[in-house]
Amino acid sequence: MDGTIVDTEPYWIAAEHALVEAHGGTWSHEQAMQLVGQSLTFSAGLLQQAGVDLGIRQIIDTLTAEVVASVRQQVPWRPGARELLEDLHQAGVRCALVTMSEGPLAREVVASLPRPYFEVVVTGDTVAQGKPHPEAYLKAVELLRETDPDLSLEHCVALEDSTPGVAAAVASGVATVAIPHIVPLPEDERYILWDSLAGRSRADLEDVILARFLPDGTAGPEHARHQAATLEGAGAPGTAHD
């Protein structure tokens, strides 16, 4: 969610700065970059090390409240995010939101959407292990499978912007697209790199899945469409976003 669908990272960074400074410490850009995509528990631990004299739960609640307040004033959508969600929704592609933010912030973002794009929402407070562990993505797929037992990891694509998020998606076994935002990501054969979601559509995500089945790229468009239809027949493709 943060950094892929909405650009809330500046809100988080501002909240971190304010919290550390309120406790007499200093917070650098480099320190803030270490928290991008991480679980809130991990982030709270680093803030404690920076001098914040509060418990983990207090830190998480304080940061989340600040970011929720900022989102209520303005939802900072990432380019192409709403358009892609609308395209997927119109095509009947089931979507899950997988984020390390907790329920209150995720619900705020979801409530601002014009339609119920996300059938499943997995947040950081509903998993035992945060990203880069794959638990959140595996949980999202299992929840989607409850109404479609034929759905498998091979039918799903994850869209991620951060190093921990990409690592979690790759480890879960789903095809992964990295759209780096705040922190650059290197090229890697384990995932596909996109510059932006702007101009992207369902067809681009189908190509990501087909590339796993046809790594030599020899199949033509007609065969690709047939493969896509076969995949949908076996279980509607799913897309998981952070």
Features:
HAD-like_sf; PGP-like_dom2; 2 domains; 242 residues; 6-stranded parallel β-sheet; Rossmann fold; hydrolase activity; hydrolase; 10 helices; DNA polymerase, domain 1; HAD_2; 48% helix; single chain; alpha/beta
Walk me through this protein's architecture:
The protein is α/β, with parallel strands linked by helices. The protein folds into two domains: 8-73, DNA polymerase, domain 1, CATH 1.10.150; 81-212, HAD superfamily/HAD-like (Rossmann fold), CATH 3.40.50.1000. The protein has helices spanning 9-22, 29-34, 40-49, 56-73, 81-91, 103-111, 135-145, 163-172, 202-213, 221-234; strands at 94-98, 118-122, 156-160, 175-178, 192-193, 238-241. A six-stranded parallel beta sheet has the order 2-1-6-3-4-5, sandwiched between helices. Helix 6 (103-111) links the parallel strand 1 (94-98) and strand 2 (118-122).
- How far the N terminus sits from the C terminus, by CA atoms, comes to 4 Å
Helical fraction: 40-55%
**Tertiary shape:** globular
Let me know the CATH homologous superfamily of the largest domain: HAD superfamily/HAD-like
Show unreliable segments.
217-236
DSSP strand tally? 6
- List SSEs in N-to-C order: HHHHHEHEHEHEEHHE
Helix-and-strand structural type: alpha/beta
Biggest beta sheet attributes:
6 strands, parallel
Tell me the number of structural domains.
2
Architecture of the largest domain, CATH level 2? 3-Layer(aba) Sandwich
Strand order of the largest sheet: 2-1-6-3-4-5
Organism: Pseudarthrobacter siccitolerans
Pfam families: HAD_2
InterPro entries: HAD-like_sf, HAD-SF_hydro_IA, HAD_2, HAD_sf, PGP-like_dom2
Protein name: HAD-superhydrolase, subIA, variant 3 family protein
